[in-house]
Amino acid sequence: MDGFGIPNNARGLFDPNYLDSCLKLIRLNAGNPQWITERLDFVHKTLQGGFGKPRLIQDTIDIFLMIANTLVLVDNQSVGINRMLEALIRAIDASETELNSDLKGRLSGVLASFLALHGDLRRGVTTALLALDHIWDMRDPEAKLHALQCVMLALGYNAYTELPQAVIDDMLALVETVENPQLVAETHVLLAHYRNTRSEDALALEHARLAIDTANDPNIQLRAHMQRATAFRLRRDFARAEQCLQDAMSLNDLVETERRNALVFMQQAGLYLERLDYARAERLYRSALKMCKELDLGTLIPFAKHGLALVLPYIGKFDEARELLHDVHDEYLWNRNFLGMAEIRFALATCEARAGKPKVARQFMLAADGLAQRLPESAARDYLISAIANFRRRLDAGEYNSTRLTAT
Question: Which of 20, 95, 359, 404 is deepest in the core (most CB within 10 A)?
Answer without folding.
Answer: 95
